[in-house]
Specification:
Blueprint (H helix, E strand, L loop, with lengths): L9 H8 L4 H16 L3 H14 L4 H7 L1 H49 L3 H6 L2 H43 L1 H8 L2 H38 L1 H6 L3 H53 L5 H42 L22 E8 L9 E8 L4 E5 L6 H5 L10 E6 L2 E2 L5 H6 L1 E4 L8 E2 H5 L8 H10 L3 H6 L7 E2 L8 H14 L4 E5 L7 H11 L7 E5 L3 H4 L4 E6 L2 E6 L1 H7 L2 H10 L6
Parallel strand pairs: 3-10, 3-11, 6-9, 9-10
Antiparallel strand pairs: 1-2, 1-4, 4-5, 7-8, 11-12
The structure holds deoxyuridine-5'-triphosphate and magnesium ion.
Length: about 600
């Protein structure tokens, strides 16, 4: 995404996210200026001590006649050093506090953004990449607030304070020392230009590595099944090596520039000695001033040396912030329309498709074309068709996971795109084709859509789904914790829990996508019977492959190449002697009479 499209720049973005702590950050920044300015005091007092007590004509008697003056200077030096340490401590605490709060806030915001995204977003972004944004990238932002900002201020404050002090002491000497500054700036800014794309690349490699690890961990069963561990380890090694090399290359950019900066920094004492001794000899500078210059030379040299590191870290932040802001400012395409229709009563459950066509955003050809049908309230509509014909795509248009390219999907006569999304989706109970259960108890999984549901009702929907029996047999019954993605359950058991979860919300529209495909025929028959006797009105849209599941439906739709090729009841379709009749022949082994 083009970063110009972000409504705020990076600094404004951070500013937005430290609301409530902006005062503290400003105080912290002033604190940084203060403790750096305080660096000057020790050399200042040293200069006074040298000039008054150690050099000059009166030096021999000065200490005896003004012991008090001597010790107050020494005590002031000690006092200020201790005070400075305290300020540095408080200052670091303040930056840490602000950065952690900003991090917390941005992380929550990002998570909410990701949660509200539409299907298109999830098709586009890989889990590993999103995880990188939520972890490594965010840490770069924290580091930027806690360290980079502080260091930038530190360098500038120190450099400026020392420059002013130098000029106030001795203009000639100051000019000679600071003459090197422009050279440093040229070096550092050339470096910045070179290192910027490197950090973007590095960030990309990091994300690739996380994605590879994440996919391997969640897909380890496939790896094991095909005994591809060595292959995956080798593949990961390549990505890891790639990351290492990019990391090294990025670090090496500074190594190329460093000798120049180092030479400049090392030239400073030479300049001091050379020019300083000339000025001393000409009596244009006191010994105390010379000591002060010498004692503060590091305050000019250090910022020079640190600049590369600071810029490196800033570029790392910049690359990470681009990635985070992309999500931070992203908006899902499917949102509540203005004046979204809220519908306080329960939907009757009429579902209507009016000449609907649909194409995935990244695909050339439409998946569905000219789909029209009506499911009256309480009816059961079965959708059949060979794999990949568009069944799942079709039902995903009802809860508005995707938007049709043309035509309309209506619920109770209202266009779904005009309805409040939350209302629409809470009225639909859906059991998706690949079942995903959470690492929670079975009870918690079934009650996912309605956390206020009573225990009796959980058991009731589990009975309807023919799940109660196997759940009761488990060691801890409904309190048994199922692992990530439902580890510990069979495919058919997972499907039945997923059906119970869909039923638990007592939906007006129940959508089942191949939900009983892994359940044995006997149990499936039982489920079908239970579904026809639900104690709440409900329109059912059922995708299935088995005739036994669909036979009793009020309407059967046959999808072929994204179009409805046949529709009608079991008997009507047998009479048509088309795809459905062929399916019956194949599945029952019986010759049906057309
Ligand atoms: N498709 C995409 N992008 C997606 C999902 C599917 O391009 O995110 C394509 C693949 C397929 C067509 O759409 O060619 C229809 O897919 P769908 O999942 O709707 O097919 P299905 O009828 O549900 O197949 P199955 O019986 O295997 O579940
Ligand atoms: Mg499907």
């Amino acid at each position: 995404m083009d970063k110009k499209r972000f409504p705020r720049n990076k600094i404004q973005w951070i500013w937005d996210n430290i609301e409530g702590l902006r005062g503290l950050l400003i105080v912290a920044m002033l604190g940084t200026v203060l403790y750096n300015a305080m660096q000057l005091t020790v050399p200042y007092f040293s200069q006074k001590i040298v000039d008054r007590f150690l050099t000059g004509d009166a030096a021999a008697t000065a200490y005896e006649s003004d012991k008090h003056g001597f010790y107050s200077l020494v005590n002031a030096m000690i006092g200020i050093t201790l005070l400075r340490a305290l300020i540095v401590y408080l200052d670091c605490m303040a930056y840490e506090h602000v950065s952690q709060r900003a991090l917390y806030r941005i992380r929550n915001h990002l998570f909410a953004k990701i949660e509200h995204q539409d299907m298109h977003f999830y098709n586009e972004y890989r889990t590993g990449d999103l995880m990188t944004r939520l972890t490594g990238d965010l840490d770069a932002v924290r580091h930027n607030i806690a360290w980079v900002i502080r260091m930038i201020i530190e360098c500038f404050a120190l450099f400026t304070a020392v420059s002013i002090y130098f000029f106030s002491m001795n203009v000639k000497m100051a000019l000679c020392i600071l003459a090197l500054a422009p050279v440093i700036f040229i070096i550092v800014f050339t470096f910045r230009r070179k290192v910027k794309p490197m950090h973007q690349l590095l960030r990309e490699k990091h994300s690739q590595m996380n994605t590879a690890a994440q996919e391997n961990i969640s897909g380890n069963r496939v790896v094991k099944a095909f005994s591809r561990e060595d292959y995956e380890i080798e593949k990961f090694d390549k990505i890891n090596r790639d990351y290492r090399d990019t990391n090294k290359k990025t670090r090496l950019v500074w190594v190329k520039f460093f000798p120049f900066v180092e030479t400049c920094a090392n030239l400073l004492p030479v300049v001091l000695l050379w020019v300083g001794s000339t000025l001393l000899m000409k009596d244009e500078m006191t010994m105390g001033e010379f000591v002060a210059f010498s004692g503060l030379m590091w305050a000019i040299a250090n910022p020079m040396r640190l600049l590369g590191n600071i810029l490196n870290e800033f570029q790392r932040f910049s690359a990470a912030a681009d990635k985070i802001m992309e999500i931070y400012y992203s908006e899902p395409a499917i949102v509540d329309p203005e004046d979204a229709i809220d519908h306080p009563e329960r939907f009757e459950g009429k579902v209507e498709f009016q000449n609907v066509s649909f194409r995935y955003e990244d695909a050339d050809l439409p998946v569905l074309s000219g789909i029209s049908f009506v499911a009256e309230p309480g009816e059961t509509v079965a959708i059949m068709g060979e794999t990949g014909c568009g069944k799942t795509s079709l039902i995903q248009l009802i809860p508005r996971f995707y938007e049709p390219s043309s035509g309309k999907v209506l619920v109770d006569g209202m266009d779904v795109s005009k309805l409040k999304l939350k209302l629409l989706r809470t009225s639909i109970g859906m059991a998706t084709q690949d079942v995903l259960l959470y690492s929670d108890t079975i009870d918690g999984n079934i009650a996912y859509g309605d956390t206020n549901i009573t225990k009796e009702n959980v058991i009731k929907v589990a009975r309807v789904s023919a799940a109660d029996e196997f759940i009761s047999k488990m060691p801890e019954g409904y309190d048994t914790i199922v692992g990530e993605r439902g580890v510990g359950l069979s495919g058919g058991q997972k499907q039945r829990i997923s059906l119970a979860r869909a039923l638990a919300v007592r939906p007006s529209i129940l959508i089942l996508d191949d939900t009983t495909s892994a359940v044995d025929m006997e149990t499936e028959k039982l489920i079908q019977e239970h579904l026809s006797e639900l104690d709440f009105p409900c329109t059912k849209i059922i995708i299935a492959q088995r005739i036994s599941t669909t036979k009793k439906a009020d309407k059967i739709l046959i999808l072929q190449d994204g179009r409805i090729s046949e529709s009608g009841t079991h008997e009507e379709l047998i009479k048509k002697n088309g795809y459905y009749a062929e399916l019956v022949r194949l599945q029952t082994g019986e010759e049906v009479i057309a």
